[in-house]
Write a structure and sequence with these properties.
With 213 residues, the chain is an alpha+beta fold. The chain has one domain (6-211). The chain has five helices and nine strands; from the N terminus they run αααβββββααββββ. The protein has helices at 6-11, 31-41, 51-65, 149-159, 161-166; strands spanning 70-77, 91-98, 103-110, 121-124, 128-129, 172-178, 187-192, 199-204, 210-211. The strands form two sheets. Strands 1, 2, 3, 4 and 5 form a five-stranded antiparallel sheet that branches. It has a four-stranded antiparallel sheet with strand order 6-7-8-9, covered by helices on one side.
Length: 213
């Protein structure tokens, strides 16, 4: 991917997010999606989880907040003492918005608590004003996200393999699920290093293919 494009595309997925306008209401989870969440419940509480596993935990409280919620992005975070790797994380943050309320909230799901401000389970942030959809930040239809974070990570690292071999000291600096007018479907965005000297990969969250611009 040309370096000149990466900064522009990356900005389309950052949380300049406070934006959306008209979207379909969220639909209840399918049996397959519920199975994903239940599978996670059987694992050790301290093990990192995928984005979709965390999402279905957030879904329960998001639906209680407002049935018309939409997802703007999902981002992994770190918790000291729990290694996040392979596209899984100990803490996930999801930005959810409501077209009817014109608000957004940040939901988080953590596999363990960590003082002073990380609580196990789902935590819901305070509502804030939201201006609706823009071309740069569009809602993510989770029903179309067939590729979970672990599979997307495997694809991205495979695409970046040659670069990573030469730049092994560069760590993963950005990793998120988002959507924008430049893409035909929601995308997983990965970047190693920085925008100037790093390597960026976009993985189509529906097909699992690397997207080239």
């Amino acid at each position: 991917m040309p370096a000149s494009i990466r900064p522009f595309l990356a900005s389309a997925l950052t949380i300049a997010i406070l934006l959306l306008c008209s979207c379909s209401p969220s639909t209840p989870p399918t049996s397959a999606d519920q199975g994903t969440a239940k599978a996670a419940e059987s694992t050790s509480a301290s093990e990192p989880v995928t984005a979709k596993t965390a999402y279905w935990e957030m879904y329960k409280l998001a639906y209680k907040w407002t049935p018309d919620f939409v997802v703007l992005r999902m981002v992994p975070k770190e918790i000291p003492g729990v290694k996040s790797d392979g596209g899984k994380a100990a803490l996930w943050e999801g930005t959810f918005a409501s077209p009817s309320r014109k608000e957004y909230r940040v939901f988080s799901y953590a596999v363990v608590a960590h003082s002073p401000d990380i609580y196990k389970g789902v935590t819901v942030g305070n509502p804030a004003p939201w201006g609706g959809v823009t071309r740069e930040v569009m809602p993510v239809a989770m029903s179309s996200v067939n590729i979970d974070s672990d599979a997307a990570y495997a694809t991205a690292t495979s695409d970046a393999a040659s670069w990573l071999k030469k730049n092994g000291e560069k760590s993963l600096s950005s990793f998120q699920l988002g959507n924008g007018y430049s893409f035909p479907a929601p995308v997983w965005y990965f970047m190693w290093g920085d925008k100037k000297l790093g390597y960026a990969v976009f993985v189509n969250a529906t097909t699992g293919k690397v997207m080239k611009k």
